[in-house]
Amino acid sequence: MTPASRRFLHPEAISRIARLELRARAVVEGVLAGLHKSPYKGQSVEFLQHREYVRGDDLRRVDWKVWGRQDRFTVKEFEEETNLRLTLLVDGSASMNYTSGALSKYDYAATLAASLAWLALSHGDAAGCAVFDDKVRAAVPARTKRTQLTSIVEVLESPRGGRPTAFLPVLRGLAETLPRRGMVVILSDLLGDREGMYQGMQLLRKRGHDIAMLHVMADDEIDFPFEGPTRFEGLEIPDAIACNPRALREGYLAAVGEFLTAARRRCAAAKCDYSLIRTSEPVDTGLVKFLSRRSSMAV
User: Fold this and answer.
1) What is the pLDDT of residues 16-30, one digit of tens each?
2) What distances in angstroms separate CA 198 from CA 9, 64, 141, 168, 206, one per listed residue?
3) pTM, full prediction
4) Exposed, middle or buried, 298 (CB in 10 Å: 0-12/13-18/19+)?
5) Alpha-carbon distance 123 to 57, whole Å?
6) Element (H, E) at 137
7) What would the DSSP string read from start to end of 7-35?
């Protein structure tokens, strides 16, 4: 294990994840088995469905009979067992540096991403990773090679720009460059252009990708436990405010509730699996929550 790996996958974390796999083997295997059933062109496999042609599809899959009858391009999809292609997209913007416990939001998200990659690679699946703010700062494409986990951790350890988040250009670029359909897991605090994020998720869905959102937030952001005069400084804007938190708590908590409700609804509208994860939760607990949701969807 490299020194970089120890930050996000130290022995204690690996031990917890290993115990997780033993405790929740049925969940893990059920999730991965469900995710492996992906609609790709195959030989001697069962026809699944027609769908609209999108740019980049193999022309050999166009159903010319449908085109002749209906004057529209559709492609045939078949169901076969394929390895999962997992792409982890980690928000590295300045707001992710906030820390209210042992780990910052970024360190927590990176640890969770490394754990998901470790789990996927241990099952023979391909895993890749990208870190972004207003653009992709570092990336490695999905691979199954033995050194892939080290490559992913190096991406997670790479210097970040500390810029505000810009979801749309990043997700649009991802939709245009991923070589084939797979699963995209976004790990972010969603403090940025959320409308751009929803548009980007729609682009990924149109390309046939399965999307999951792991919404990583600190307890302070959700519970607002501050007492006494406090100075709040912006991480992505140069503003600061000194105030009595008690006077703001009711309005703040109402705004956070609306923010979380809107995130869930918009992700559901984009057919994106949404999970809110607090940085106070152990990483394996957050992973169980995510895998459990995936298992219930696969049934």
Assistant:
1) 545 433 433 433 344
2) 31, 34, 23, 8, 12
3) 0.74
4) middle
5) 28
6) strand 136-143
7) HHS-HHHHHHHHHHHHHTHHHHHHHHHHH
Q: Are strands 74-81 and 46-52 parallel, antiparallel or unpaired?
A: antiparallel
Spatial separation of the C-alpha atoms in residues 153 and 145, rounded to whole Å: 14
CA separation (Å) from 196 to 5, 71, 163, 182, 200? 32, 33, 16, 21, 6
**Residues 6 or more apart from 44 whose CB is under 8 A from it?**
none
Which of 108, 297, 121 is CA-nearest to residue 211? 297
- Strands of the sheet with 210-217, listed across from one edge: 136-143, 126-132, 85-91, 183-188, 210-217, 272-278
**In this structure, what token pair is assigned to residue 106?**
């970024």
Question: Which two tokens mark 151?
Answer: 């490559």
Domains along the chain? 3-36+82-298 (3.40.50.410), 41-81 (no CATH)
> CA-to-CA distance for 116 and 287, rounded, in angstroms?
8
The pLDDT tens digits for 172-187 are 999 998 877 899 999 9
Rg, the chain, Cα only: 21
